[in-house]
């Protein structure tokens, strides 16, 4: 880009030949003896810069690029939520079977969870497509905003350059000439005119200062737009990577995980069957051993054991002895009673004889 050196108070201004021509034309139009011209100088481009800054800020607020980031985080959360080690505790009829019940629940719940997650992920992927499209549109829109801001920046530079050139013209030539004439003439009106012009130039310089502040605002807006563009571009690339790489890779890993789960279920079921079979054989063997020994012992016993006969015989002897003893005692008591009765009869007889 060709540029010409402009003698201004701002060394950062670099203008092309075409822009230099515009500066010269604008400089010739500046009339510092017209207060309204000073007030209105550059006000239109200032208003454009201010309105444009508000528009950019509005775009930043309304374009929620964070939504795309939330979608990516939500996708990551959903994938992590699928726990391959999860095992359910409830289920249908098959879940009640001791050996395979837990395995059935684990596979059933995992598959149900996977199908639900797959549906949710597909929805997220659709939303990511929409977010990517919107972000791509936003990047193009921000590019237009950047170019428009660059136009405002160049336009305000022209106003600043023209204003600086006009100030230099007055400071270096017009004001000194007016001062010299006023001093030579000793005319009060000429002195007042000189002072009025000095004040006009001062106010014009303040106006240029305001323009330079607007120029800084426009200068800052450019990098802000680029930062937003770069952020959106990064999100677009991440979304693109997720759609083309992460999602297919995740699906492949899920297929592998399902295969491993089925494999683990089969292995665990076989291990449980083997364990149960061995336990059953061992228990039957123990029961066979115990039963056989008990039967053998019982078969060697008589119908009535000798000890039982001995005990019964002893009790029988004791019963007979007790019976005999009781009978002997009864006979003795009866004899005594007979003697007592004879005595009583004799006593009665004796009393009766005495009575006669």
Give a written overview of the molecule.
- The chain is an all-alpha fold.
- It has two domains: 269 residues, no CATH class; 50 residues.
- The protein contains seven helices and no strands.
- Helix 3 packs parallel to helix 6 and helix 4 packs antiparallel against helix 5.
- It is rod-shaped, with a radius of gyration of 60 Å.
- Belongs to the TelA family.
- It comes from Leptospira ryugenii.
- This is Tellurite resistance protein.
- InterPro entries: Toxic_anion-R_TelA.
Task: Lay out the secondary structure.
Layout: H1 17-29, H2 35-40, H3 43-62, H4 66-81, H5 101-185, H6 188-299, H7 306-355
- Low-pLDDT residue spans: 1-12, 86-104
| Average residue pLDDT | 75
**Which percent bin holds the helix content?**
over 70%
Give the percentage of residues in beta strands: under 5%
The largest sheet, given as strand count, sense and whether it forms a barrel, is:
none
Give the N-terminus to C-terminus distance in angstroms: 189 Å
Individual helix count? 7
- The shape, in one word, is rod-shaped
Please write the string of helix (H) and strand (E) elements. Answer: HHHHHHH
Rounded to an integer, what's the Rg over CA atoms? Answer: 60 Å
Count up the domains: 2
- Class derived from helix and strand content: mainly alpha
